[in-house]
């Protein structure tokens, strides 16, 4: 026991001596802390020296949270992480100002919607028979080379379709016309079936078969507005009309429409080559009620030969009557009966 006590007393004295030497060296606080930790680590076997990464993490300030958008973070993956696809990361396109539309790409608007060529022509067509149901008489008188011929038709029209029955003279009585969607047929007693004819075929004098039909200029022609003109003291819109297909009565028409009454008052007719071959003046001495509004209705068309020979063909429209028309009137299978 005395031997063990002496050994313990000697070890304690050695420890105190070592600590006294350490106090006399006065190192900096950081160095002292590191040396102290190293001393006690060596003395007592601490595992702090085996965890340099953990000590470094505790000595650094806390990381600041990034405010970058998630899309930016996703666009920069760690270098060690392999890309799953070869396609580039999708990013929202940068907003750009929309360039103004070039003036040449859109038609120049008219002063108001009331001056839209389509609407003007549609309204003018209504005064020439393009309605849901109307009947009238058309008397044709042709004066050519000093000779006068006449013919009378009973016309019924519904929209673009017409049915005509010749009621005079006796030699032509009973002849029929039927037009469906710009296709026309002729029939007379004794024929086994109707004969297809063109709207451009001559009916009498300067009048074509299509002249006795209601007009549909708004749908059948492309309209280009020309400078306004005055006709017999009347302010008029002027349109250059070009046919959209070969089934129309005329290839090209220059058409004057009364601004106030919205009716066609004059027309020049041209061939495809641009040659004017006849002209016409229109009168509106009749009245019909359309949608509760009293409207002028065509009463006369005077067609003149371009050679100014004095030959004229007059179509007189009388007794207009608005009324619903049954389907059988426009049925080609019943046309011959």
TrEMBL record:
Domain of life from the UniProt record = Bacteria
The ranges of region (Disordered) come to 27-115
**Keyword Lipoprotein set for record:** yes
Give the Uncharacterized protein TP-0789 domain ranges. Answer: 168-331
- Give the species: Azotobacter chroococcum
Segment forming the signal sequence: 1-22
**Does the record carry Signal as a key word?**
yes
> Biased-composition ranges for Low complexity?
66-86
This protein is called what?
Outer membrane lipoprotein-sorting protein
